[in-house]
Amino acid sequence: MRQRSLRDHNLALVLRQVTAAPRPPSRADIAAATGLTRATVSTIVDELIAGGLVAELRPVSRSGVGRPGTGIVPAGTGPAGLGMEVNVDYLAVCAVDLTGAVRHRELRHLDQRERTPAQTWRALAGLADRTAAAVGALGLVPAGAVMAVPGLIEGDTIRVAPNLGWQQVALPAAAEFPALHGLDLGAGNEATLAALGERHATGLDSFLYVSGEIGVGGGIVLDGELFGGSHGWAGEIGHVTIDPQGPPCHCGARGCLEQYAGEEAIRAAAGLAADGDRPVLADLGDGARAGRAPVLAALEQAGTALGVALSGAVNLLDIATVVLGGHYAELIDWLRPALERELSRRVLTAAWSPVEVRASALGADAAMIGAARAVVQGILDDPARFLATRVQPSQPG
Question: Are 29 and 57 in contact (CB under 8 A)?
Answer without folding.
Answer: no
